[in-house]
Write a structure and sequence with these properties.
CATH architecture: 3-Layer(aba) Sandwich
Number of strands: 11
Strand content: 5-15%
Number of helices: 12
GO cellular component, one term: cytoplasm
GO molecular function: carboxylic ester hydrolase activity; palmitoyl-(protein) hydrolase activity
Keywords: Fatty acid metabolism, Hydrolase, Lipid metabolism, Serine esterase
InterPro entries: AB_hydrolase_fold, LYPA1-2/EST-like, PLipase/COase/thioEstase
Strand order of the largest sheet: 1-3-2-6-7-10-11
Low-confidence stretches: 180-185, 187-250
Catalytic activity: S-hexadecanoyl-L-cysteinyl-[protein] + H2O = L-cysteinyl-[protein] + hexadecanoate + H(+)
Length: about 350
């Protein structure tokens, strides 16, 4: 059983009204007290957001592979910041536990906010660096609320990256290519059915004759000795596949849309139930958690987490049809830029979800 997470730092609204809650994750090696107080004071956020409750969780201590197994506060272990795709197996346990922790925290806070049933949509999830990475991965997995279909109000990330971005990108490309091939195959089949394929009309009678010939099978002496028999299979019986159920169950993910296939890969990593083709076709609300505004900011001169990693994250989320706002800060390094980036985040949240900003 995993160790419990420390009690989050909670800052109540300075106004009497509580309209929104921000859950913001610190970077690797930090904690809620150090990160939370510095962020609030540097940007004077309580005064600018008087109706917002701030929750700063602390990552539990995990042994860091890159620091020779020294225990530090981190949301998940990762081997390299230059290439987060190396040894991704190290990331799975922490990502899974952190996402589960966040889902529980979000449910609790939604109940506080949700007298009118809109509690989830008044929650903003955000993070810096590894906190951004853990938060956005939990966001992709979804499964928020008792229904598993609740969506949050917004997400913002600063100087972050997307775990498993290369794998998710490969799934998206492969699935999209498959959709194109299926469309072309379907078009070719339609052309043949209406007589536009090569030699289709000229071979109709011949094909029927060949089918009758193939229905006659000579038995061997080891069988019942009845000699030649005529097959009684009709077309439906000939198409029967005794392994059809096994094939359809193992191959069901390939019938999902590209976005759902990506979600299922994330959910597999997070040990969440898989979405089915029925969810994709008849219950799109199961992917409602993707239908939220996302702000991603990154210093163009970041020496720790390359801006290229942030760009890749923004690109993949956009290809999932998420509403992504991306902004680079020229000459800035690894952190959040005050006041520029904080002002951009607040303007974004005010515009996208009507967060009161003074």
């Amino acid at each position: 059983m995993s160790k419990p997470y420390p009690t989050p730092l909670t800052i109540e609204p300075i106004a009497t009204e509580h309209t929104h809650t921000f859950i913001i994750l610190h970077g690797r090696g930090s904690n809620a007290t150090r990160f939370g107080h510095e962020l609030l004071q540097s940007a004077n956020l309580p005064a600018q957001l008087p109706t917002v409750k701030f929750i700063f969780p602390t990552a539990r201590r995990r042994r860091s592979t890159i620091l020779k197994r020294v225990p530090i506060n981190q949301w998940f272990d990762n081997y390299s910041l230059e290439d987060p795709g190396q040894r991704t197996n190290l990331q799975v346990e922490g990502l899974c536990e952190t996402a589960a922790f966040l889902r529980t925290l979000i449910v609790q806070e939604a109940r506080v906010l949700g007298e009118n049933g809109d509690g989830y949509q008044r929650i903003v999830l955000g993070g810096l660096s590894q906190g951004c990475a853990a938060g956005v991965f939990a966001l992709l997995g979804g499964a928020f609320g008792d229904s598993g279909c609740e969506k949050l109000g917004a997400f913002f990330g600063m100087s972050g990256w997307l775990p498993f971005e290369a794998e998710l990108g490969d799934i998206l490309r492969t699935a999209s290519d498959g959709k194109v091939r299926d469309s072309l195959d379907g078009l070719e089949g339609s052309m043949q059915r209406v007589g536009l394929g090569d030699d289709t009309n000229s071979n109709v009678d011949t094909d029927e004759d060949e089918g009758e010939d193939k229905g006659e099978v000579e038995s061997s002496d080891e069988e019942d000795g009845s000699g030649v028999f005529e097959s009684s299979y009709d077309q439906d019986e000939d198409d029967f596949n005794p392994f059809e159920d096994d094939v359809s169950s193992s191959d069901s993910n390939t019938r999902l849309s590209p976005s759902f296939q990506v979600i299922n890969h994330v959910r597999d990593i997070l040990d969440l139930p898989q979405l089915s083709p029925q969810d994709d076709e008849s219950n799109p609300s199961t992917a409602a958690h993707l239908d939220i505004p996302v702000f991603l900011g990154h210093g163009a001169a970041d020496p720790k987490v390359s801006v290229r990693l942030g760009q890749k994250m923004a690109s993949l989320l956009s290809r999932l049809d998420m509403n992504v706002t991306w902004k680079e800060y020229i000459g800035f390094g690894h952190w959040y830029k005050v006041p520029d980036e904080i002002d951009d985040v607040l303007a974004f949240l005010q515009y996208r979800m009507s967060v009161p900003v003074t």
